[in-house]
Specification:
Helices cover 25% and strands 43% of the residues. The chain is globular and about 40 Å long. It has 3 helices and 9 strands. The protein has helices spanning 2-16, 80-92, 146-156, and strands at residues 26-29, 38-41, 46-51, 55-62, 66-74, 97-104, 107-115, 118-129, 132-138. It is α+β, with helices and mostly antiparallel strands and 157 residues long. The strands form 2 sheets. It has a 7-stranded antiparallel β-sheet with strand order 3-4-5-9-8-7-6, with helices on both faces. It has a single domain, classed as 3-Layer(aba) Sandwich (Protein Transport Mog1p, Chain A), CATH 3.40.1000.
Length: 157
């Protein structure tokens, strides 16, 4: 009987951490900030929006080192694969690019190695909706772990 109880407790506690990190996030509609899209975000995020005429820029910040930047503008193509390919090329040619962590049809997660002691992560996710193109990535300032970036990537899909 003790063996069964110990095994049950072990399974209970080992499964506790398996819940997706995105479960702490809630639906958040960006329409009131000029973008007719929804993402997952922490409760009561801080949102800043800029309309630069031909392009919009929205940042969404929240607890847990959650920081997403979304840019939008008129789509130059509806070929997401071509847009992703361009983003991949730009990222791979950047100074601190280290490696692609994961890749899907609409985006990818990658690592930047600034130094041996300073590793950062980022992502790109592309969404075409109507005649608009949306580009998602982490905010421009900050350091993000692979797990944090995976959570934000899942939040914008």
């Amino acid at each position: 009987m003790r063996y069964f109880v110990a095994l049950s407790l072990l399974l209970l506690f080992s499964c506790k951490g398996d819940a997706p990190a995105t479960s702490k996030l809630m639906d958040y509609d960006l329409m009131k900030h000029g973008m007719p899209i929804k993402i997952m975000a922490p409760a009561e995020p801080v949102v800043e929006a800029s309309d630069m005429g031909i392009m919009k820029d929205v940042t969404v910040k929240g607890e847990g080192n959650y920081f997403i930047q979304i840019t939008s503008g008129v789509a130059t193509t509806t070929d997401v694969a071509a847009l992703k390919s361009t983003q991949l090329m730009e990222v791979k040619n950047a100074l601190f690019f280290d490696e692609i962590i994961s890749e899907e049809d609409h985006g990818f997660i990658y690592r930047k190695k600034i130094s041996e002691d300073r590793i950062n992560h980022d992502f790109r996710y592309i969404k075409i909706q109507g005649d608009q193109e949306y580009m998602f990535q982490v905010g421009l300032m900050g350091q993000f772990s692979e797990d944090e970036v995976k959570q934000m990537y899942e939040a914008v899909k």
